Structure formats: C-alpha cells, structure tokens
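hey can u check if this looks right to u? its 701 residues, i copy pasted from the old doc so theres a chance i mangled smth
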Amino acid sequence: MTTNDSNPLLRPATTLPAFDEIRPEHVVPGIRVLVKEVEGILEALERDVNPSWDTLVEPIERMQDRLGFGFGIVDHLMGVSNSPPLREAYDEVEPEVVKLLTRIGQSQPIYRGLVALRDGAAGKNLDPAQRRVVDKLIQEAELSGVALEGAARERFQQIRLEIAELATRFGNQLLDATKAFALDLSTSEEIEGLPTSFLEMAAQAARAAGMETATPAAGPWRVTLDGPSYLGFMKHAKRRDLRETLYRAHLRRASEGNLDNRPVIDAMLRLRLEEAKLLGFETYADLSLSRKMAGAVSSAEKLLEELLSASHGAAVRDLEEVRVFMGERGAAAEAAEIRHWDVPYWSERLREARYDYSEEQIRKFFPLPRALDGLFALAKRLFAVEVTPADGEAPVWHPDVRFFKVRSLEGEELAAFYLDPYSRPAEKKGGAWMNEVVGRSRLFAPPGRNARLPVAYLICNGSPPIDGNPSLMTFREIETLFHEFGHTLQHMLTRVDIGLASGIRNVEWDAVELPSQFMENWCYHRDTLVGLSEHVETKRLLPNELFEKIRASRTFQAGLQTLRQLNFGFLDLELHHRFTPGGAESPFDVQRRVAARTTLLPPIPEDRFLCSFSHIFQGGYAAGYYSYKWAEVLSADAFAAFEEAGLERSEAVAETGRRFRETVLALGGSESPMEVFKKFRGREPTTAALLRHSGLAALAY
C-alpha cells in the first residue's frame, strides 16, 4: 500500500503522468483519494450555488479535470498495458467513479444554478462560447437524469453503473479471446503466398510464444487474430482451408465458454433502452441522436439510405469482378461458391493484377520513421507548426512509445503528444485512437502562460518492427496514422481557453471525425505520399509510376467498402432504435436481417461479429456508428477546398490550411459544427466531393 503523498496518480494535471512509477497498487488508494476530494468540492459547491461563470462553471471544470486526469491515466493503461492486477484494481474503483460522475450529473443545485445562469442577468454577459458550454452542461444534466426522483433516480444510477461494468467486461473478454487463439504453421505448403515481411512477423510471434528456434525461412510460424497478422494472412495465404479457419475464429471471438460476450450484449441493449425510457425517449437511438449534429435518427438513416442507393450496384459489380477473376485464374469451382474468406485473398490478387503493384512492394517504401517525417512535414506545410522529437523528456509506459512536442514556426510551444505505434496483442486492445492526457485550459495555466497546453495520446496497432529493423507500413496503416493524427491536431491546435470547449470537447460526436478523415485524403496527394517514402533497401523515393497506380486504385472496390461501413451503421441503429430486447428476435437475428439488405454474401451461421463490435459495446459509438459516414461528407468537402485552391500551389494551400486551422482545428466545441464548417467553407456541406473521391454516382445531400 502506498501513501497519498507518494501516489503518482495524485499529482496535479500540470505535470505529465509518471508512467515510470505508476503501478497497479497505486490505483485503488489513489482513485479513492481523488473521489473523496472531488466529493468535497461538489458538496461545497452545492451548499452555496452562485449562478455565475466564475463561481459555477469553472468549479465544474475543476472537478472534471481533477478526476479525469487521474482516472484517465488508469483508463489509458487499461487499453495499452492491460494486466490481471490492473484489471482487478480498475474493477474495484470504476463503480465508485461512475457513481460520482452520475451524482455530479444529477446534482439539482448545480442544474438549477446553470438554468439561472442561462436565463438570468449574468447570462447576458456570457460570450457565445460560454453560452454554448452552459447550454451543453444543462443538456447533459437532463440526459443524466437530473429531473428523476425517488426510485426512478436510484434505478438510473444503477443502470449507469451496470453499463460501465458491462463495457469493461466486453473489452476484457474480447482482448482475452483475441490472444487466446493461434494458428501454428510448420510446412512450406501452409505458408504459400505469404510475403517475407509476414513470415518475419509470424516467426517473431512464434519465438515470443516459446518456439525459440523459429525463423522466417524455416518456421514454425504463428498466425494470430491481432489486426496485422489476421489481415495479412487473409489477403495473402493461398491455402483456402486455412483462411476459412482463421475467418471463422475471428468471427467467433468472445462468443464461447467463459469469454462469451453474448450475455453482455443482451444486458447492455436492455439497460440502454431502459435508460432512454426513464429519460422520456422512445429508444436509445433517440437519446443518442438528441445530442449529435444529425439531431434525429431519420436524418442519420436518410444519409445511410442515400449512400446505400449509390453504392449497392457498384458493390455487386465489385464482387462479380472478383468471381470472374477467380475463374480466369483457374479457381472456377471456388468462384461458383465464393465465400467470405475468398474475397480478401482474391481481391488482393485482382488489385495486384489491375494496378500492377503488391502490398509488399509498397511497404518497403514506407518505414515508420520516414513516414513520420513526411507526416510532420505536411503539418508544417498546412498548419505552420513544427513537430520535434522529445524522447526522454516524458516517462512512457512501454519502450516503443515516443514523445513529441509541437511548436509554432516562431518557436512558441503549443502542445505535445505520445505515440504508441505498434500492436502488442498480449496487453493492448486492437484498433487505433486518440485520447487526451490534458486539454487546453486557462484555469490551469502555468506561470507565464495564458493556458495549460494540451497533451494527447496517439495510439495505433501497426506492424511491429522485426529483429531490430524499422516497422514497414502497409498503405492502410499509413491512412490510419494520418487519421489519428487528424484527431490529435484538433486536440492540440485549439485556441479555445475554456477547458470545457477546447479541442474535441463539446464537439458533437458525429462531427469529431471531420479532421481525422480529412487528413486521410493527403495520402493520395503526390508530393505528400512521395515525401513519406524512402525504400528501406535502396533509399529511393516512391517513383511517380507507382504513385499513379496507388492513386488509381483509390476507388478499387469502393462499392464493397462503402457497403461494409453502411452495414455497421444500419446494424447499430437497428439494435438501438427498433430492436426489442427479450423479444422474438435476438441481436444476431437483427444482424442477419440487416445483412440481407447491406451485404452480398450472407453471414455464416456461426457469425458472432457483434461479440467483437467494440465500437458500440465498449467505445462511444452506440447509436453513433453512422458518424463515420456523416463526418466523411464534411471531411471530403473540406478537402475539396484545397483541391479548388490548387494542390500544387503552395501559397494557396498554405492559405487554405491557415483557414482550416483557424476554424476546424482552433474553434473546438466553442461553436456548433455546422457554424464552424461554414466559417471554413463559406457554405453548408454537400456529398459531391465524397462521391467523387469514392467513384460512386452523384446524389443530392
């Protein structure tokens, strides 16, 4: 047991987390001290509510920041350094944190004070950003059940607690199920088609599992369900039966034995519906959309339906092209009964034949260090910022983690971020994300500054380095890095000094993906992509001929890819809007019903994809997965402004970048997303750019 004075989780949010000191045994005592401290602030505030910005809103920010910094560190470590002792500690204190947050949200004295501030004389003195913050705090209080009384209030609190516990269980079981499976290969026939880089990764995985003599040339090789391993195998392994084995294992993750997420899903959907009805909404989707840019389920579904209409025919053609290609390559029998595990493999062969390049060929041009240099050069060109390594200036949670600082070209320090680039399936959850360490805020300004500077976590799960050589990135991994860096830029380059509205805070969820998806477009810009490249062996830059092939392949199977995202979006809304928990249908029946409209190959009978759909059962995308497509409309239209300015005209690009930085990146949640977009673009968004970029037929927004 540690004392409060020595507990690194209790240090102020003006210092960087002491990842070199934090241990699981710090969690329970540290978080309990924070909970008690914040409870004291809350009780003092409730005793004497003064409806003004300084005496009400700023104390709310201080409470949220104090608890959020300490518990946020623990939550972060659960995602990147998960371990049984950390889980045990987290499970012990999470209910106490959830109860406190619910209590703050349901504080009637604070709510009445906020309403009085909004409607009273003091409200007239609020600037637009402050008024939006107050409005959002009132809305969040109402959606936290502030108006509930008696048994309804107690039941709501219990629901919030149970949902939080279920989300944690869902993620832990998915992580455990992912790392529990392995496919060990030992013969040359089993590895036919797999590129050298994959065999190096698979041999390294085998050695890590205790097969110490494993080599890329002789094996044995271990294939896992971790992203780089699974996707690489499905794209390149010639053995159809082994692809089928891996595919079935992937879709059964966390659906069997003591790692079964099916009861978690059932309970979560039931609790979410009950929560919505307690708050006066018909469905959880109605509740979710009430705080989003779309505003209503009908608006979200309208966009999804329009995109479905535009993409379905293209997807049918995409799949038929794969069938024909299979037949031409001597796989007529397989083509006649094409299955899910055939599509990635034969699509990759078709892409290689059509555009005359391989994924392995591309990877050699993109070692991670060079890709980072190119990404940071783009940030300098667009947004006039300098990103410089600061390794050693901040403690990290793993040796692979790097630390960077961001400055203006004049040398003003603006922000910092950690980069954790590689997959670690034994302890790190899959996917990629950005999260905040601390946000910009004038309340916590150090001496000599106007505001505390923002710091971010940038987390990816890319291909790890092999035997001391640099990580070689697939093109999709490059896009993912750009995507998450877009989120990081919005967090770091905010100019809002109100902590409750800086960066991505207070931004409607379906607009948050705008900067991230915007950055992906630069992966198809010649100067940018060439600037990321340096062949790992020859040191040559990406040749123009190869770039043109990559750009030409941008719309390859756009119909199938769009249909996949629409399937997820429709499924999410259907589960949270029309599905009745405990009724005649199960969630998996709903999955098959939605798939009948949005997929071309029906799900296999044992498909349990929902048990790994962490976006909606662990992350923040419940009744919000449509946000990816909603924001993609915004991001494509935003990138079109650079195209219209002339991508090769450096001064015009810099000027457009300045406008993007001063609006989308700078204004955060201080204004509505639509107003921010109009300030940048001069008008409301249209789908024209998205459909042009994806090669789909035009439709009206």
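The domain at 363-555 is CATH 1.10.1370.40 (Neurolysin; domain 3).
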